[in-house]
Amino acid sequence: MQLPKYKKKKRIKLKVCQEPGCGKEFWGHPIAKYCDDHRDIKQRQKQKKDIENIESKNIIFRHNYTEVMDLPFKCCLDGCDFDFTIKVFPKQFVYPRFCMEHRNDFKRANFIRIMSKKNRDD
Ligand SMILES: [Zn+2]
Ligand SMILES: [Zn+2]
């Protein structure tokens, strides 16, 4: 007796990756949701977290400077108007959002706590 060689033949379909911002077409199993790049769940979560991290602590400053410049920035933390100087580099667009003091997670959280308490008391 001869057994069929390919009993479980995989059905593959042309799918579109569900990862936001990807939209890549790929051939996959009917239940597949992600392309090769995003099939690994760790890859997806890590990517998301990295973006959140960048945006929570930095600003995207688009400029056309062709040489290194010292520019005045203002701390983005509510209630802190501290001015600080940032060295702006050509073709670099990600810069810190907060003054020296508030780049520290702990000090920033502390400042937010103090400010919200102050606002409640007013
Ligand atoms: Zn993808
Ligand atoms: Zn500050």
Would you give an account of this structure?
It is a single chain. The chain is α+β, with helices and mostly antiparallel strands and 122 residues long. The chain has a domain at 59-121. 28% of the residues lie in helices and 21% in strands. The protein has helices spanning 41-57, 105-121; strands spanning 13-16, 25-28, 58-60, 69-74, 83-88, 94-96. The strands form 3 sheets. It has a two-stranded antiparallel sheet with strand order 1-2. A two-stranded antiparallel ribbon has the order 3-6. The chain has a two-stranded antiparallel ribbon with strand order 4-5. A hairpin with an 8-residue loop joins β4 (69-74) and β5. The protein starts with 12 loop residues before the first strand and ends with a helix. The structure holds zinc ion (ZN) (2 copies).
Topology:
Blueprint (H helix, E strand, L loop, with lengths): L12 E4 L8 E4 L12 H17 E3 L8 E6 L8 E6 L5 E3 L8 H17 L1
Antiparallel strand pairs: 1-2, 3-6, 4-5
- Could you tell me which ligands this complex binds, including any ions or cofactors? zinc ion
The helix content is 25-40%
- What is the overall number of helices? 2
Helix-strand category:
alpha+beta
Rg measurement, Å: 25 Å
Strand content: 15-25%
Total E-strand runs: 6
Q: What is the strand arrangement across the widest sheet?
A: 1-2
Protein traits:
two-stranded antiparallel sheet, two-stranded antiparallel ribbon, 28% helix, alpha+beta, 2 helices, binds zinc ion, 122 residues
